Amino acid sequence: MKFRDTSSQQGAELELAPMIDVVFLLLIFFIVTWQFARFERDMDISVPSAEEAQNTDRQTGEIVVNVREDGSIILNGRNVTKTELLAKLQSIYEAYPDQAVILRGSSDADFQSIMNVLDQIKKAGIWNVAFATTSPQG
């Protein structure tokens, strides 16, 4: 009976190329998801609470418009004026007619400021608008 010579066999080697590929894919995934979450982290906005608030599934590519307490408008993390907001929303509407827009107005903001932003959204032709709220505390 002939047995294999185990001393002449090569040991299993660790392949680094597939492991590096997986690490880079994970890195890209976390960078991309972090980029989307950044737009929601405007610390100057404290949205009002509502008893019927509910968490809905997020869609990719949602446009987040923040209205701060002083009336300044933040579109996806950038300060914009009302005319810039209208121009950007119109270009988005032309490319994606069913685009969702989330309006996050600070609870301390002037109601007229929020209505001005809502008017600009409607002028752009966007119909899919959601208002961000939080659940009441306690």
Report on the structure:
The chain has 138 residues and is α/β, with parallel strands linked by helices. It has a domain at 38-131: Nucleotidyltransferase, domain 5, CATH 3.30.420. Helix content is 36%, strand content 15%. It has helices spanning 16-38, 82-95, 111-123, and strands spanning 63-67, 73-75, 78-80, 100-105, 128-131. Strands 3-2-1-4-5 form a 5-stranded mixed sheet. Helix 3 (111-123) links the parallel strand 4 and strand 5 (128-131). Helix 2 (82-95) runs parallel beside helix 3. The longest helix is centred in the first third of the chain and has 23 residues, at 16-38.
Distance between the termini: 79 Å
Specify the oligomeric state: single chain
Query: How many strand units?
Result: 5
Characterize the overall form.
elongated
Poorly predicted runs of 5 or more residues: none
- Give a quick account of the main beta sheet: strands, pairing sense, barrel closure: 5 strands, mixed
CATH class of the domain at 38-131: Alpha Beta
Helix content: 25-40%
